[in-house]
Amino acid sequence: MKTMKNILLIPLLALSFLTIHCSGSDDDVPNNEPEVPVQTKHFHPPLWIQGTWHTTETPTTRLKFTQDDVISLNDNSSLNDQINKSKTTNLIWAVEDEAASNTHYNYTLTFRSVGGGPYADNKFKVQKINDTLMLRAPDFAYLIYYVKEKD
Predict the structure, then answer these.
(1) Buried-most residue among 20, 83, 97, 127 (CB within 10 A)?
(2) Cα 143 to Cα 146: distance, rounded to the nearest angstrom
(3) Domain extent for 43
């Protein structure tokens, strides 16, 4: 009988030891929600991409790269303006992972909800083919070519 009490007592002590040492804090639980990004004031497109470009498939789809902005000429919207306007809303726009070289220009336009809700990333990656032609990295199932317009 004494052995039976000891057999029951050992698991009970182990369970109470674990319970005492458990923390009620969730600080150690990883948060899978991305952080609201730090906003970048301006883009920094390289010199070779600065100017107006249109796609070969839809010549009316036009982008203008300046030394510190990217502007959609379809609706005359500046990405810097959109980033600045978002500072007063719950959906923050930011430029992340911007990288430029003599042949490539990449950035990620990120949209994050201040309250931790939905988010999205729009990656823009282009490769210079020559002075008047660039290729956007595969966008879904096809490649997009841009032709530089004469100023």
Answers:
(1) 83
(2) 10
(3) 34-148
